[in-house]
């Protein structure tokens, strides 16, 4: 419910409302180079970030699943009248349709309980989203930006960095939220790189990344076996002795092409019989 003109944060929605104006200002500034490109803000709450985006001249559309927040935004942000306040679940939306099949940026103080899913969603629209920024749990933010050879590196690190340059910008302490979360937060920015084709089977690439990180204690020689024909010989490569967190995006592309080659060789041998 709305108390004294304020929205009550809801634990079930992962809501932690930012209360520090200077932090909101810094997050909004991450899109300073994209004025003129429409912006979707995810989970605006009471508009702490929204007001700075609007003031900076951005064409803002907000997506909010909380009815109380929607009522608050409609009452306090006349600039968002019409279809600029979308009542719904960001994860279930056809974003291309909502944004008129034109490029758009994504920003938010992302709900902690769905932050990883949000970035998988962004990946689905990588050819339409030139920039995505915002705040999420520090652990997840560090994971998205993690470099090869670091423990934080994971599935999303590789999948995002294949298409985006990801930077961890700054850390936000717990006390500037209502209610304070139990962990620190981190702000990141992702800008689309120049890659249009990975140079491998992209579907197999994603499968290999997910499979190998799902068995991250194993060397790639062992974790990838289940994706290859039984008994198929592996071509010589130093990659087989490594673990997934040690690999760059280029290494995973090479690994995918090696796996494709093994599959093709076995398929070709069967066809010759």
What does this structure look like?
This protein has 273 residues and is α/β, with parallel strands linked by helices. The protein has 2 domains: 2-192, 3-Layer(aba) Sandwich (Rossmann fold); 202-272, Helicase, Ruva Protein, domain 3 (Orthogonal Bundle), CATH 1.10.8. It has helices at 21-29, 50-55, 67-76, 95-98, 115-124, 138-145, 155-161, 202-214, 220-223, 249-272; strands at 2-3, 6-7, 17-18, 39-42, 60-64, 85-87, 105-109, 131-137, 164-172, 177-178, 185-192. The strands form 3 sheets. It has a 7-stranded mixed β-sheet with strand order 6-5-4-7-8-11-9, sandwiched between helices. Strand 1 and strand 2 form a beta hairpin. Helix 8 packs across helix 10.
User: Would you identify the CATH architecture of the largest domain?
Assistant: 3-Layer(aba) Sandwich
Quaternary state, please? single chain
CATH class descriptor name of the largest domain: Alpha Beta
Order of helices and strands: EEEHEHEHEHEHEHHEEEHHH
- Radius of gyration, Cα only, in angstroms? 21 Å
- What fraction, in percent, of the residue positions are helical? 25-40%
Strand segment tally = 11
In round numbers, the mean pLDDT is 92
Q: How are the secondary structure elements laid out?
A:
Layout: E1 2-3, E2 6-7, E3 17-18, H1 21-29, E4 39-42, H2 50-55, E5 60-64, H3 67-76, E6 85-87, H4 95-98, E7 105-109, H5 115-124, E8 131-137, H6 138-145, H7 155-161, E9 164-172, E10 177-178, E11 185-192, H8 202-214, H9 220-223, H10 249-272
Parallel strand pairs: 4-5, 4-7, 5-6, 7-8
Antiparallel strand pairs: 1-2, 3-10, 8-11, 9-11
